[in-house]
Amino acid sequence: MTKTLRTPEHVYLCQRLRQVRLDAGLTQADLAQRLDKPQSFVAKVETQERRLDVIEFVRWLAACESLGVVTEVVASIAGATFNSQDRAEPL
């Protein structure tokens, strides 16, 4: 399996995670505190410097009270093509 860091799917995921945080009205520091992580952890995820595992992904969404977007995010990554601007497009 090839590495996924900075692939179009990874870029989309990081952009979506950032939007979830912003929609929740949280700063990076707020989210980091809820996750019991340093603020740099959140920054590195959002700038595509670090990947999340599945557990971290779920905890991120739970900390933002946004578990409802799991299906949308996973479906977008699993069933979409990505154009040059890294935006999901339905197949």
Distance between the termini: 22 Å
Query: Which term fits the overall shape?
Result: globular
The description of the largest β-sheet is: 2 strands, antiparallel
Low-confidence parts, pLDDT < 50 over ≥5 residues?
none
Q: Biggest sheet, strands in spatial order?
A: 1-2
Succession of helices and strands: HHHHHEE
Oligomerization: single chain
Total DSSP helices: 5
Helical proportion, percent range:
55-70%
Strand content range:
5-15%
Total count of strands: 2
SS-derived structural category: mainly alpha
Quote the average pLDDT.
88
Radius of gyration: 13 Å
Could you explain how this protein is built, in words?
There is one protein chain. The model has no long low-confidence stretch (mean pLDDT 88). By secondary structure, this protein is mainly α. It is 57% helix and 7% strand. Helix 2 (28-35) packs across helix 3 (39-46). It is globular.
Give the topology, please.
Layout: H1 8-23, H2 28-35, H3 39-46, H4 54-63, H5 70-79, E1 80-82, E2 88-90
Antiparallel strand pairs: 1-2
Helix pairs in contact: 2-3
